[in-house]
Specification:
Layout (H helix, E strand, L loop, with lengths): L2 E6 L5 H4 L8 E6 L1 H9 L5 E5 H6 L4 E11 L6 E5 L8 E4 L5 H12 L5 E4 L4 H5 L5 E5 H12 L14 E2 L2 E5 H9 L3 E9 L6 H16 L1 H12 L3 H9 L7 H14 L14 H5 L1
Parallel strand pairs: 1-2, 1-3, 6-7, 6-8
Antiparallel strand pairs: 3-11, 4-11, 5-8, 5-10, 9-10
Helix pairs in contact: 9-10
The protein binds the ligand C=C(O[C@@H]1C=C(C(=O)O)C=C[C@H]1O)C(=O)O.
InterPro entries: Menaquinone_biosynth (IPR003773), MqnA (IPR030868)
Protein name: Chorismate dehydratase
Family: Belongs to the MqnA/MqnD family. MqnA subfamily.
Length: 284
């Protein structure tokens, strides 16, 4: 029987997915986070890199690969709240319908500051939405990275990604992962690779993913160069963007994940992870 994968194929997973060779009997589709969350939960796909909050909400049924994540320690550059007033004065925030995790993170951060602006799903660029009555706009993924650079760039020989301003052209860009780091000092895990507990991935797929990740991270400059062209961004930006990610769901990433889970989904079922690398291959 075919095993179906669903990939959120944002640039941030290019170091894992670009060189992935699917083993025989595995197919893949792609989509944005909310589409892949739904596809996994309705069993239209068997494994997907999903918004970590959906993994937490459905922890009774799902399990995640023990060593795959899309996480960062500090800024992420592609999960951004664009706003024209200070955070404490925001009234109406537009939320992208592509995201579950970043919306949940925004809610936790706002609640932590005692703020309760109106949150509404609305599509469009940050600039468009800020011109139509919203004073804040949450954007994720490649378009958020591009829009961030459009507001705070360009990089010059004297500047680095971390020295770019947060406010330019009348717009402030608040990086939600940076806010999480300021609050907790821990990484933020945006996505995990999850599947239904009764339907784990074939070991050959997990093995192929590990090999693809080793290849991608080993040749990160090449991956960044190709994607810089596609995104229309300087290579320097995409290189920094990619090497900043944590793809191995290490102990600090799990710590950030469990901490977020307690805040965002109190009373959730215990989070479950598959067998550690090495065990999977031998127990197959
Ligand atoms: C870092 C990002 O993380 C993504 C954000 C997600 C969400 O907001 O639901 C889901 C999966 C992640 O891969 C990004 O979109 O830029």
């Amino acid at each position: 029987m075919t095993y179906r994968a669903g990939w959120i194929h944002f640039t941030n997973v290019a170091p894992i997915l670009d060189s992935l060779v699917l083993p025989a009997g595995v197919t893949a589709i792609t989509g944005v986070p909310t589409e892949m969350n739904e596809a996994l939960l309705s069993r239209r796909v068997d494994i997907a890199n999903i918004s970590a909050v959906e993994f937490i909400r459905n922890a009774d049924a799902l399990e995640a690969l023990p060593d795959f994540s899309v996480a960062v320690l500090g800024p992420v550059y592609s999960v951004n709240l664009f706003h024209t007033q200070p955070l404490a004065e925001l009234h109406r925030i537009a939320l992208t319908s592509q995201s579950a995790m970043s919306v949940a993170l925004l809610e936790v951060l706002l609640r932590g500051r005692g703020l309760s602006p109106v949150l509404e799903r609305a599509e469009g660029t940050a600039e468009e939405l800020l011109a139509t009555g919203f004073d804040g706009v949450l954007r994720i993924g490649d378009s958020a990275l591009r829009e961030w650079y459009g507001v705070v760039g360009p990089l010059t020989p004297e500047t680095t990604m971390t020295s770019l301003p947060h406010t330019a052209r009348g717009i402030t860009v608040t990086d939600l992962a940076e806010e999480w780091f300021a609050l907790t000092g821990h990484p933020f895990t945006f996505a995990v690779w999850a599947y239904h507990r009764d339907n784990p991935p074939p070991p050959a797929l997990v093995q192929a993913m590990r090999e693809a990740r080793r290849e991608g991270i080993g040749h990160l400059a090449g991956v960044a160069g190709r994607h810089a062209l596609k995104l229309g961004l300087p290579e320097r930006v995409v290189q920094h963007y990619l090497w900043n990610f944590r793809y191995h769901l290490e102990a600090p990433d799990r710590l950030g994940l469990t901490e977020f889970a307690a805040m965002a989904v109190p009373g959730h079922a215990p989070l479950r992870f598959g067998p550690r690398p090495g065990v999977l291959e031998t127990t197959g």
